[in-house]
Amino acid sequence: MSDKTADTRATCPVDHSASGSQPTAPHGSGCPVDHTKKPGFLSSLTNTTASTNEAKCPVDHAESQVNPLNMMPTLAQTMHEGQQTALSTDRESSTIPRADQSSDTHKWEYPSPQQFYNALARKNMPAPEEYVDVMVDIHNFLNEGAWNEVLKWESRHECKMPRLIRLQGRPRDISPLARIYDWRFGVRPFDRHDWFVDRCGKQVRYVIDYYEGEPKDDMPVFNLVVRPAIDDFSSLTDRAKQMWQDAKQKYFPDPKK
Question: What are the residue ranges of helices labelled H in 2-82?
Fold first, then answer.
């Protein structure tokens, strides 16, 4: 089946590439990285994830730990034991509408840098405190990019305001498509999320595989493979239509474009 892939690069401008299309970055999103913090940035991230058996999102998105008031895991805002630098406790609002609210002004909130640091420390993934703000920016930017891809799939349907119900981290569960990629190209995603979207009363599950690309200029590159899970005939049809569009554009390109 076809999929949509976004190449999300932590540099500006961000180059998003998809199967036969060129999606753009989320509206209003600038470069997520403060380039004054660039030296040694990538190596610090590598050292952070090298201390654990698996590289994945440090925020635990297990459904049982989600706070129903803000649709995010409950994470402490206090400084962690041994922490030397005070980190911001401000939380950034996303562009992703919450399914538990009727107004489109109610959005998901991302973890603050302090919450993010505490999540890393809890999972024994120590991070240099000076880079936590950058890591949070990239985490948020990837989620915005993933939602942007979800909206492209949702544009096939009549619902004008899809909303995110919840998300679930499944880093140990390799999706069928990821297994195919592993067999063909020898690469595996470092993380997987399942996003549950409210399509005007109908719940639709999306699978998102996160891949690490080749670094460019000491900056990380990430590839997101976003598609609806084949849980019903509608999602199967969407995937088949996308596969046909990709094949048609590849083998029978429009000479006017």
Answer: 41-50
Cβ 11 vs Cβ 250: under 8 Å: no
Q: Are 8 and 17 in contact (CB under 8 A)?
A: no
| Model confidence, pTM | 0.74
Q: What is the mean pLDDT of residues 155-164?
A: 94
Cα 199 from Cα 161, distance rounded (Å) = 7
d(CA 154, CA 35) in angstroms, rounded, equals: 34
- Rg of the chain on CA atoms, in Å: 18
The residue assigned the tokens 């505490």 is 118
| pLDDT per position as a tens digit, 8-36 | 443 322 233 333 333 333 333 333 344 44
